[in-house]
Amino acid sequence: MATFKNGVNGSFSGRVGNVIGYQWRGINVMRALPRKSNKPRSEKQLANEMRMKLAMSFLSPLSELIGVGYQQAADGLPMTPFNIALSYHKKHAIGGEYPDLYFDYSKAIISTGALAPAEALAAEWTDEGLAVSWHASPQDGNLVNSQNTTILWCLATNEKWDIRTSGITRGMGRYLFPLPQNVIGADVHVYLAFNKALSSEMSESRHVQVQANS
């Protein structure tokens, strides 16, 4: 049953026939219920569904981080940060042709923003773990030390993420993930972004892949 707000001339909440009224992010919204169809889905529809699944598979484990990383991009828009990220990755981070679509990790972006992104991002395996480095100029002084660094990496084979969001500053220029021997040497994807302390300002993320040791 639908209920009216501010009388019969106001917005309504609930279902009326095939229409649902609700409030989303302070905006009164109406949408039609989906209609069932017996028509076979077209190749374009199937490709779109596959793109959605591939993008969701990457983003879902990172939903909290994506919510922060895309917050500025969502300001003033009737979309959530996650939906903006989903739209981007469906369009730009899917490679191949249907039905041979795949997720392109090199095109993925886990945060956006106006801060200067990492330069000369690199990563390599050491005997102790995964060493990640980036350019940190001594001339930047307090600027780089007032910016925290978010680093995350995942195994290319199973998308299990290891995320560090505190205790690393831009000025450090290097961080070592201590890892067990059974992980060292695997094929991994690494992402890094900066965020300004005590604010929501972030940089666009950067990506580097570390190939498995042969």
Describe the protein.
The protein is of the alpha+beta class and 214 residues long. Helix content is 21%, strand content 30%. The chain has helices at 43-59, 63-69, 71-74, 81-92, 142-145; strands at 3-4, 12-16, 19-24, 27-32, 94-95, 102-103, 122-125, 129-133, 147-155, 161-164, 174-178, 188-196, 206-210. A 4-stranded antiparallel β-sheet has the order 1-2-3-4, with no helix packed on it. Helix 1 (43-59) crosses helix 4. The longest helix has 17 residues, at 43-59. It is globular. The model has no long low-confidence stretch (mean pLDDT 87).
Highlighted features:
214 residues; alpha+beta
- H/E topology pattern: EEEEHHHHEEEEHEEEEE
Relative helix content: 10-25%
What's the count of strands? 13
Question: Unreliable segments (pLDDT under 50, ≥5 consecutive)?
Answer: none
Range of strand content? 25-35%
What topology does this entry show?
Blueprint: E1 3-4, E2 12-16, E3 19-24, E4 27-32, H1 43-59, H2 63-69, H3 71-74, H4 81-92, E5 94-95, E6 102-103, E7 122-125, E8 129-133, H5 142-145, E9 147-155, E10 161-164, E11 174-178, E12 188-196, E13 206-210
Antiparallel strand pairs: 1-2, 2-3, 3-4, 5-6, 7-8, 8-11, 9-10, 9-12, 12-13
Give me a quick take on this structure.
This protein is of the alpha+beta class.
